[in-house]
Amino acid sequence: MLNYNILFKITGSIAVYKSAIIISKLVQAGCKVKVVATESALKFAGNATFEGLTGNKVLTDSFAEGEMMSHINLVKWADLVIVAPATANTINKLASGAGDSLLTSLFLAHDWTKPYLIAPAMNTNMFKHPATQEAMNKLASWGATILPTDIGYLACGDVGEGKLLDTDLIYEKIISSITSISKSGKNVLITYGGTSESLDGVRTITNISTGKTGAAIAEQLAACGHKVSVLRSKSSLVSKLKNDEVTYGTFDEYKKEIFKLLSEQDFDAVIHLAALSDYTPTKLEYDDQVSRLPLKSKLNSEIDTIKVVLKKNPKIISQLKSVSKNKEIKVIGFKLTNNRNEPENLKAVNKLFSEADCVYVVHNDLVSRTTTNEQTYFTVYDKLMNRKECTTVVELAKEMEIILENNL
Ligand SMILES: Cc1cc2nc3c(=O)[nH]c(=O)nc-3n(C[C@H](O)[C@H](O)[C@H](O)COP(=O)(O)O)c2cc1C
After folding, report:
1. Per CATH, which fold does 187-407 belong to?
2. CA-to-CA distance for 146 and 119, rounded, in angstroms?
């Protein structure tokens, strides 16, 4: 979980409703958020929205009873400050050094060891106005980060610069700004997605892996300040955060890439979710002919019977420690079973522990895959076979983070 204090400043733009989306994401990720709004901002959305989302009273007035020292206390409390949306008026006031409201006084008292982000939102002419441009340059020279604006349809009907940056991108920027000041990050490699083996120019043998679980874990760990590298299949889900990313198609490509990554980089842990084919097709036999695979062209679809010869692949997970640059690397393995009974599941988990020298093994079963191909119900085992149940992918991602923070 992210455990950061975010001071979220909101000013009077038509884009105020979008700040609620960002705040909701931050709260869901574990951040504590306090909102300071201008009077104009509260004409666009009410206290109820922001107090409801954050659980904290919205602050506007420097002289509110019981809040008289907020302009100093909030600066100390915050790990990061963001103004989103930031109006032309507020941007110009901040750059002039005015302290005529709680929001502006807080800026004058800002501790510049902490990030201060400004996400402008305004009509194109207001944005291009020399006063606004000069103010943004001045604020940047003092250490504030001015986020870019989008070009697009504006509430006034114009199309141009000045539109508030996409809320997902603002969220990412907040996360990357705070996590870059976090010191305890681990260097982790996450592999996910299914292999795909070509038969001919158009046909492949693959599996049902989507990459959703791996992408969720990658996002959670990156959001918590860990350095995450991803090795994922070309067809799998891309994680939303910008990670170092390498892709693979076939089993052989996967093997080459993971060995390269592990032998060149100093990873603390590898989370091995990749759904690797146990077999690689090597030959096709039909009409007394034998063809080596993969074929470049498309196989004739008139042939009645085709035999595919599959060769067993070696177990990659059991070779990870020996090929790694860091011989102390911690391996977290995943074991998917197929509706087995409890003793058989435990046997399969134990086998993976001993074959791959894992520190943790996550077990799941095909029976708990939903009709929309979502995996649910994961059991995380440690070496002593202590277990932790996770119902959803999100719970599992948070458990992986706890393991990385506390137990590795
Ligand atoms: C409907 C409406 C939408 C507005 N949208 C914006 C906007 O997107 N950006 C902006 O800079 N000003 C906008 N304004 C003007 C500001 O609300 C106005 O300059 C106000 O004084 C800003 O106060 P504040 O910076 O203290 O919040 C808008 C005004 C109205 C009435």
Report:
1. Rossmann fold (3.40.50)
2. 6
